[in-house]
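Handout, section B. The chain below has 150 residues.
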Amino acid sequence: MAEINHVVVRLVDGRLVKGTTHDFAPGKPAFHVVLPERGTALEVQVNKMKAVFFVRNLDGNPRRPKLRGFLEMPGENKHGKKIAVLFKDGELLCGYTVGYTRGRQGFFMVPADTGGNNVRIYVIEASTSKIELGPRADALLQEAPVHQRV
C-alpha cells in the first residue's frame, strides 16, 4: 500500500490545495490530492504548480515563529548541500538538497528550519527565477528582501 502524505500544494496562480496524497512521484505530469473537507480527490497538474510541501500536519502552528535563512548551519549536512531558491513571485526558500540537477522538472529539498511544519519540499524548476547552491546560496539569501525569506 502506498504511503499517505500530508501536502500543501502552491499553484503558480497563488492558490493553495491542502490534503493528502498517495500517488505523487517526481517526473509524473499529475497526481491527486484528497481534500479533507470533501473527501474527494482533486487532480493536480504539475505544470501548474510552484511547489508541493510535504508537511507534518495541514494546520501547521501559527504561533511558532518563522525562522528565516540558513540559521547559521554548515554548507553541507546529511540532507545535502545548501540551496537557495528564488521563485518568480519573489519568495525565497532556503534549505538543503541532494537531488538538484539543472534542467529537470523539479527536485526535493529539506528546509533549513527542520523544526517547522515542512518536512520536505518538491520545487518545480519552471516556477523559479534563480537557484543557487553552496556559497552562492548564501549570497542569494543576502540579496533577497527580508520579508520574502523562508
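Note. Residues 21 and 33 are 5 Å apart (CA to CA). Compare this with the example in section A.
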